[in-house]
Amino acid sequence: MQSFSCLTGVAAALPLVNIDTDKILAGQFLKTTSRAGLGVHLFHAMRYAADGSDRSDFVLNRDPWRGASILIAGPNFGCGSSREHAPWALLDFGIRCIIAPSFADIFYNNCFKNGILPVLLGAEAMQILIAAAETAGSAAMTVDLPAQTVTLASGAVFHFDVDPDRKRGLLEGRDEIGQSLMAIDAIRVWEAATGDRWGRDIVASDLVDQDLR
Amino acid sequence: MLLYIDRHLVNEVTSPQAFEGLRLAGRSVRRPGGTIAVADHNVPTENRDRPIEDPASRNQVETLERNVAEFGVPYVPLRSRLQGIVHVIGPEMGMTLPGMTVVCGDSHTSTHGAFGALAFGIGTSEVEHVLATQTLIQKPAKNMLVRVEGKLGAGVAGKDLVLAIIGQLGTAGATGYVIEYAGEAITALDMAGRMTVCNMSIEAGARAGLIAPDDKTFDWIEGRPLAPKGEDFAAAKVMWRELASDAGASFDRIVEIDAATIEPMVTWGTSPEAVVSIHGSAPTLDQVPEGRRAETNHMLDYMGLTPGQALLGLPIDVVFIGSCTNSRIEDLRAAARIVEGRKVAPGVRALVVPGSGAIKVQAEQEGLATLFVDAGFEWREAGCSMCLGMNPDQLKPGQRCASTSNRNFEGRQGPSGRTHLMSPAMAAAAAVNGRIVDSRGLA
Ligand code: SF4
To answer: What is the ipTM for the molecules in this complex?
Structure first.
């Protein structure tokens, strides 16, 4: 995973409520077996007209927001399906940081697994960020994870909270699986102690006996 | 902290990148016997004896088949009688048991909470993490108690109850919480109804929802292929009984709902919280707070409704009875009771997609299938189907659908499709009337 420390880039405002992961990456693009290449399908229905051309009223189709690396979003961003294809599409487009007043749980969690920093800010700060991002001249901002701040071109600084462990994970670009595997002895002890208390192991023959209806 | 995962369900859409990650890192699957894989999202619901036509869907299913073979993961083949929607077949096989931790790369994993399991959806990175370690890194969630006292009226289903709960909480109302559902109306639900309620917890933002296991739960589990047998079952029951929350347990938030006030529910907008009773209407703009008017306007526009328009009598084009929310035998029976002796209205396309091959067979044996087919329904093989339209079962742009699924998001059932969520009885009533009606008038 790519690490995240400090990012300066253009912020695009998309302050709509309840942007679900179907809107971020529609079901028709889920048939891939790869993480890469989903950026062109990001926000498909909002971004493209029926004939496939760009909709000029959509922020990511306009300069300078075409090159945005920060997204200023609305409440409950990322609700709905657990598909990690949504953060993959954002990342593939170039978004490394999403700032919103609230996120849906699974999406929030998925961001950290992909080197994307989700930042939570209060309603007042969001108003100022949205206004800044909507004006081309002031849309660039800096997100500093070690300092936990967002700094606008105007010099205004907003502090945000983030779980210390998640922060460290992002800063290190941590391999969580490798880390968890270091606890393998504890996992083995747990397995031995609980045994098949919660039901026996499944074997292939449990499933193929009733083949071919 | 590390949470040990007892059961991991794997599907074809959210797993390819996880297996690829294992392969690249030279890792194996830690506990294949706690894992079960099945293809459900993409699979065609007709012509199963032919190869899957869509090359991308076929590739995803074949990739899953290669991955489970390479990593030794138990797999339910597409042509097995056990194949079906992952959240339907898990409980059906007795794979989901009280007190377990259950995860799946799918947000409706909350369904399994109906058995008193802690069950929640995860992303693909976490799928890889569970495959490799049989654990997840977790932080404790907050607890919410949703207590539903009183009795549901005749013809009011678990689906109506959960839609009413979501309407009250809002789509983000339970974010960060695990919901425990309790109270007279919850314990009175059968297991199918409990699964419907827990299934849609995620639609209120909760990652998990659960219900204390009781005799109804144990009776339902007993005899299922993977459930403990004989003395083991008796011992398990003793243990399972202790799982219920203590009387007077403290919760971060308590929500009380009166079951008697709930009527059949229908969504009017493109978020499950945009829901009213069948005799209600889409909102007028002065009924919504100023900050949400633009959004409301957009939803009305997308749904082809005018402000204040009544839902009763709204003509529909398609009816979908299926999905992990409402495709169990009890759901099909409820729909069949309405359909019996009636015909699908002219011009309406209606589908029934059972949740599993086993349910399909059972419904055929009970005569429900004949009833649906005679009435003019399409009778399909098991899968997710038009719940998310990854297979050929999709709405055409502008089509209005009465659906028993769980999400009415824009484009969810097909680009520019319009979805009204409701119960199986309500969807069946819409099918035979060609418009949205109160199913209680037909029962
Ligand atoms: S039926 Fe729908 S909600 Fe359920 S698992 Fe399938 S796609 Fe997801």
So the answer is: 0.93
